[in-house]
Amino acid sequence: LSHPLGPDVEDAKDLLEEILEANREYVKLG
To answer: Can you tell which superkingdom this protein's organism belongs to (predicted)?
Structure first.
């Protein structure tokens, strides 16, 4: 299902997922 705002939204979601994953790694190290 495509978002009406287009590819920028998909890029933002990918970036958010990367940030969340990095945060999980940080929490594991902490």
So the answer is: Bacteria
| Three-state DSSP state, 7 | helix
End-to-end CA distance of the chain: 38
pLDDT digits (tens, 9 = 90+) for 1-30: 566 767 888 899 999 999 999 999 999 987
**Residue 24 parent element (H or E):** helix 7-29
Nearest to 10 by CA among 28, 18, 27, 22: 18
Token digits of residue 13? 């979601």
DSSP code at position 4: T
The total number of structural domains in the chain stands at 1
